[in-house]
């Protein structure tokens, strides 16, 4: 019997989860739930029901793990506690500062319902968090660095698109090569926000919009751009569609530390992803396997990637892992 | 009360563990056990007893975790099951092909004694195993690559030293840059042994030894050198001591895979270590913390790195980890 997976929310991330579930031999996509009219939503997999979100509660006995694919700003803070009261759930909640509060709310709901919830899995938080915890546990005397990119920041792209006169925009976060090199050389530099990343924007203007005005508005935007060296390129729609429609991303987590007699050690974890939502969907899917197994063991409550042993993510059993992966 | 650590075996690795334990605020080195005459062994830490290995059993109630620092060839296959019958233990058993048998022997001993044993931790097996399992669980369609080096292989250095006429020798394992680059480009190449690594030897000859004879013997040695492109440099003892006394090592674990629609993803974990035994000792020490906590929970039996959640390795608690590392 395969693990029965439900998907709640069918944007880029939901579609990425669908692909990953279809690649997993031990899983079956059971249903997709949407806030849209299901009749207007075509999914990639044949013979899988697409249902309105209101029908989800009726599927409690037919779904082993529900993967929540909404956004962190407004969807997940409400959805994850709500659905953890009915299903084993996995989410990719990624507002770092609000994780403790999200954890507490989800943990209470999941415990009361006797369900397992795994929150904040993806690559950051998620795989990058793992890299930070493992490497700082092994090298307690040292410094951690996280660089993102080169890749598309959806939040920054959205912020540029909200500026009057902007028809379309994409923002790339780019690590500063010289800073990355200094970290790799073991120099343990103190890096300001500006020294870690630059921001590069590709903007299509509405007809008649003033490029210098738009550029000023971008570069002076607090939090998003003001603390960075930002480059703005104005391009036409054809070039935008041809060159900037992807969702590539990636990054680096580096721990640079010393053992007692001054020997230096560098631990580096990096990702280079052609599709951020597809890779994030793949991580969610692996953790859905873990959620299923933990639930089978009778465990309940909220977990993060830090609380789950790696073997739970793999379709292979302990004997196979020890023989082939260790 | 700090975690009381014992070290059994005081070579390079035992000394690396000692340094790591002294860096850990929640641990205290309680005793070092040796097969040598303890009177002739000076350790780095003041006021810690150095005792003959025969006295270890009397310390069962004074040591929380005993870290076994012997070799994988003959020491650990015997020692780990034996001491798992008396202590919670951690070892760095690294003969990959024999891990399943070692696991079975240690698991039985630890279960009978009600103790926790964690085997095969270090960086390969250990952190590299984690990278392989996490990345293949997330990207099931893909290929794994492990490259070692540039670094000193103790086994290969020993093999060269056993050749008649060789006074001293050091062997470096070097990844083939072009193969590493092809993997990073996502080409998923099939790589032969020769295409993955080269071997570089620095040899000091005994007086009167024939260099061409020694070079032939090295290059034709089955398993160790015959399948590799090997370079042999003959140097004098002064140069050897000046340039080749270190134990640096490192390597790369790369997973190159695709999500369903052909998007490519690269997951890379790498280490660059000035001292292999000190870093390995640091990993053993982090897993000793995990062993202590698992034992406190009443768990027993054998574990590997794959069976242990990352949070167990960190001195910080769940709230702190969620707030600062996730």
Q: How much is the radius of gyration of chain A in Å?
A: 22 Å
Report mean pLDDT of chain A, rounded to a whole number.
97
Give the N-to-C terminal Cα separation of chain A: 28 Å
Sheet with the most strands of chain A? 7 strands, parallel
**Helix and strand sequence of chain A:** EHEEEHEHEHEEHEHHEHEHEEHEH
Helicity range of chain A: 25-40%
Fraction of residues in β-strands of chain A: 25-35%
Number of strands of chain A: 14
Assembly context of the chains: homodimer
Which consecutive residue ranges of chain A, at least 5 long each, have pLDDT under 50?
none
The gross shape of chain A turns out to be globular
Q: Which structural class do you get from the secondary structure elements of chain A?
A: alpha/beta
Query: Total helix count of chain A?
Result: 11
Q: Greatest contact pair?
A: A-B, 67 and 67 residues
What attributes does this structure have?
326 residues; alpha/beta; seven-stranded parallel sheet; 26% strand; globular
Strand-helix topology:
The structure is a homodimer of 326-residue chains.
Chain A: E1 3-8, H1 12-23, E2 27-34, E3 50-52, E4 65-68, H2 75-84, E5 88-90, H3 99-113, E6 116-118, H4 127-138, E7 142-148, E8 151-152, H5 154-161, E9 166-175, H6 177-184, H7 193-196, E10 197-205, H8 211-219, E11 229-234, H9 237-243, E12 249-258, E13 264-273, H10 276-296, E14 301-303, H11 318-324
Parallel strand pairs in A: 1-2, 1-4, 2-3, 4-5, 5-6, 6-14, 10-11
Antiparallel strand pairs in A: 7-12, 8-9, 9-10, 12-13
Helix pairs in contact in A: 1-10, 2-3
